[in-house]
Amino acid sequence: MNARWRGRGLPAAWRWAGVWPVRGERRPAPRPYDVTSAEGGGSAAGGAVTSDRGAQPPGRLGRGGAVTSRPRSAFAGGGRGGARRGPGGAVTSRLRSAFAGGGRGAARAGRRRDVTPAERGAAAGAAGAGACGARARARARGGPGAGGAAAGPGGGGGGGMAESEAETPSTPGEFESKYFEFHGVRLPPFCRGKMEEIANFPVRPSDVWIVTYPKSGTSLLQEVVYVVSQGADPDEIGLMNIDEQLPVLEYPQPGLDIIKELTSPRLIKSHLPYRFLPSDLHNGDSKVIYMARNPKDLVVSYYQFHRSLRTMSYRGTFQEFCRRFMNDKLGYGSWFEHVQEFWEHRMDSNVLFLKYEDMHRDLVTMVEQLARFLGVSCDKAQLEALSEHCHQLVDQCCNAEALPVGRAHCLFAQKTSLRW
Ligand SMILES: Nc1ncnc2c1ncn2[C@@H]1O[C@H](COP(=O)(O)O)[C@@H](OP(=O)(O)O)[C@H]1O
Ligand SMILES: CCc1ccc(OS(=O)(=O)O)cc1
Question: Is the confidence metric ipTM above 0.95 for this complex?
Fold first, then answer.
């Protein structure tokens, strides 16, 4: 266990004197991703993953099926109307279709052929494993960002796999064996054996949970949340390396035992699907901020991440990676189901559903939403100051332009006539 975490909660600055929103308070419904037709759809079948047979069934929703079989039209149509309509159609297949058109990934894909080895090297450097924001700033200072406890399970912080495995480039077949399957969902190996403990993890009313599918802008969100709750200066965040302050529930470090002991209020991150999160969260016992990102950009980011992460050393093509993504064969399972589950809970009083793209489109509104959700009272001038600080964070890091891309656009366009 990492001593850095022992007995520590969030920095004192985190103890904002907030008044939590009243249960059931009406929040403006976020707009769903704009999707206008339902085609495509993937299969989660197959793959040489191992299975965590000993584990207990997950929380309330049970084995994945409840989600996929549920009506899914909440995503359709876009706009607030679509958001309010509620479930009623095939969301996950619609989401799968939503890849076509727009998005940075697709735009890049239109310009680029598949990646070359030289591009690969450049991309690994550019992308890093979540090397943006606080982590990158900490690294630039020679700090512990990359190897810190929260720096990622495969990083220098003592990941979940043997070093020999880490050094071996993964062929597609080897890559398969790196996951294990839990109730039909592919999870990274470091989740093995702890899913039951996670389901029973004691949640506190003062907790704030940040939940995302990987590469959805989690680090940026945590920084923005920090600024909103603290009114902190972005440079302060860089200096303290905020990543180290936020444990990830399922990572080997700092581990569940230490997270349980952290002082309140805790801020905890997780990439797990809704149904695998602690069951207390399903009961509305603490606040959950969920952020979704355009999958066309996310898949590019996740691809680069897999190639740069030592424990994955992914060597397949981008096209092949996209197929895995579309067929739910990546770590943390189906992006489509991940987003859908949270979308269905977006009106829960303890859930705030955000979109990464809105940070760029309308940061002021997002800051306002966060402030209200976290119970931070601020006047107009304070809100503007907070937004300005958050703008700095958003502008500080985006390595998108440096990333090479394969034929994402073609692949996704085959699936649908939709435009993002
Ligand atoms: N200020 C910031 N700090 C960290 N990540 C940021 C960021 N601004 C944008 N991002 C993007 O968030 C993505 C990483 O998400 P996560 O934090 O969930 O791992 C990266 O996407 P790209 O790889 O497309 O650039 C990264 O560039
Ligand atoms: C490849 C599975 C995996 C492992 C670790 C992740 O964490 S993070 O995005 O760097 O925080 C994500 C996915």
Answer: yes
